UniProtKB/TrEMBL annotation:
Gene transcribed to yield this protein: dppC
Organism: Vibrio marisflavi CECT 7928
CDD domains: TM_PBP2 (cd06261)
Record's subcellular location: Cell membrane
Protein name: Dipeptide transport system permease protein DppC
Family that this chain belongs to: Belongs to the binding-protein-dependent transport system permease family.
Length: 312
């Protein structure tokens, strides 16, 4: 009797993959991933784990403003990391702020992905004048920094609709600004991958079978370009979080009543020389750690997908 062998499940293939093998050998990657997951889960569960809701004005007492951390003289036990200038608990604002910063970071990278993939695939696959036009457009886009685009867009938006309307849609505006400003990174990388992939036999076979260009681009070529996209996405999440923090610090990002890590640092910067250092220092530490671990994971992914460094 012939024995029938069952195909390994997705989980079994993952446990036997080189990806997991190299991950378990790299302590920096494991620690970075663990720290990121802790911050991510705490931010996601902010409404549950936060001592108070910084958005709930009725729960905020202005008499509790600028209280130091609980272990310092003058601190109170319910405010572990102290309070800000409005009397909000710093720990709660950090948790809610991390949630907002991560949301903007992931959504902005999602927008960059969509724009970069569509433009990069089109430029690399069709070539010719379409390639020249799209790449020159990307060059023009790269000549403008994220800050410059943000200043222009926010100024136009505020002048057209007013500051109050801008405050209501600040998250959407930041996602659009950061997403539109950074898509050329994806487009250039994907274009280079497509130029190499479209000469291969499976693409020629798909053309002979009569498949249309969109199907060949998205179902056949794109899956073979995912490795560099994954590496760029990891780094770009960190860049998007930093961009949001910088814009909020400059007053071009989220309003005061929607605390992100950048806006918290901006608020506390005005009080750091008066002795209330905790308002800026603690959100700043969380921001630095969050961006650091994401960048370390991005560097590890780049090395793993580089065959010159990691060999089976």
């Amino acid at each position: 009797m012939s024995q029938t062998t069952t195909a390994p499940s997705t989980w079994q293939r993952f446990k036997q993959s080189d990806f997991l093998y190299y991950f378990l050998r790299d302590k920096v990657a494991m620690v970075s991933f663990a720290v990121f997951m802790v911050l991510f889960v705490l931010a996601l569960a902010a409404p549950i784990v936060a001592p108070s809701d910084p958005y709930k004005l009725s729960a905020i007492d202005i008499m509790d403003s600028e209280l130091p951390p609980s272990w310092l003289e003058g601190g109170e036990p319910q405010f572990v990391l102290g309070t800000d200038d409005q009397g909000r608990d710093i720990l709660s604002t950090i948790l809610y702020g991390s949630r907002l910063s991560l949301t903007i970071g992931f959504l902005a990278v999602g927008l960059q992905l969509i724009l970069g993939i569509v433009i990069g695939l089109s430029a690399g696959y069709f070539g010719g004048r379409i390639d020249s036009f799209l790449m020159r457009f990307a060059d023009v886009q790269l000549s403008f920094s994220t800050m410059m685009v943000a200043i222009i867009v926010s100024a136009i938006f505020k002048a057209s609709f007013g500051s109050e309307f801008y405050s209501q849609y600040a998250v959407v505006m930041l996602v659009v600004i950061i997403g539109v400003a950074e898509w050329p990174q994806y487009a250039r990388t994907i274009r280079a991958s497509v130029l190499a992939e479209k000469k291969k036999e499976y693409v020629e076979a798909a053309r002979v079978m009569g498949f249309k260009a969109p199907r060949i681009m998205f179902r056949h070529i794109l899956p073979n370009c995912l490795s560099p996209i994954l590496v760029i996405s990891t780094v770009q999440v960190a860049n998007a979080i930093m961009s949001e923090a910088a814009l909020s610090f400059l007053g071009l990002g989220l309003p005061v009543d929607q605390p992100s890590l950048g806006s918290l640092i901006s608020i506390g910067f005005n009080y750091i020389f008066s002795g209330s250092w905790w308002i800026t220092i603690f959100p700043g530490i969380v921001l630095v750690v969050l961006v650091l671990v994401i960048n370390l994971l991005g560097d590890w992914l780049r090395d793993v997908f580089n065959p010159k460094i990691y060999k089976g």
